[in-house]
Amino acid sequence: MALNNVGLMTWTGTTPTTTAGGIGHMGITVGVPVESDAQSLVIRGNSQSQNETSWIQQAAFSLNWPCLNLAISASKIQAGLDDARVQRMYALASQAIIQFGRNEFPAMSVAQLKTYVAQDAAMMRSKGVLRIGCDDVPPYTTSTDSWATAANQSQAAGSGAGSNDDLFNQQILSIAGIDYKT
Question: pTM of the full predicted structure?
Answer without folding.
Answer: 0.71
